[in-house]
Every structure is written in C-alpha cells, then in structure tokens.
Amino acid sequence: MALTKKQEDRALNADEKALVERSRHPEIKALSEKDLADLVRQLREKRDRAQAIARQQRREVRGKGAPRGAEAAGRSDGLENKVAVLANAVRRANGERDRRATA
Known about the structure:
Order of helices and strands: HHHHH
Structural class: mainly alpha
Number of helices: 5
Helix content: over 70%
Strand content: under 5%
Number of domains: 1
C-alpha cells in the first residue's frame, strides 16, 4: 500500500525523514559509493529497529509478550507505516547500488 507524503511525515522523525529523502531521486544519484553504502546501512538499522518494536507491540496486544513499559502497547499502525516507508527507502537504495554495479 502506498503511503501519502503526509502519512510518511507523521510516521518518521526528523533524522529518519532526512535519510528517506536522501534515498530519493535526484539526491541518491549524487551520493558517492561510500555514502550510498552508509545510507543503506543506516536505513537498514532504522528499519530493523522499527520492525523489532512493531513485532513486540503486536505480541503485547495479543497477550503473548510481557509489556516493555508500564502498560501494554496499543495498536502499532504508526510503526507499521514507519516500517513500510523505511523498507521502501532501503529498496530504492539497494536498487541504486545494483544499478551502479551493473553499469
């Protein structure tokens, strides 16, 4: 499901927004190989962390996991959107890296 720009802005913090914007055209084409590799690494770390938190919250909602905070988490729709945005950014960055490797 495609997310609107407004939904993306709501799901991400300022650092994540900056990373996601760097994964879009034309900024990604201006990155060096080292910067692109660093961008992919940072995006993966952010995505993996968001996935882990969303997974824990889903377990808490189902009653299968102990709450990490004072009380069990509610719905994790915001985190699911964050994971989707970051996953798309990783996909774009990997695509650019693959494009450069074949060129």
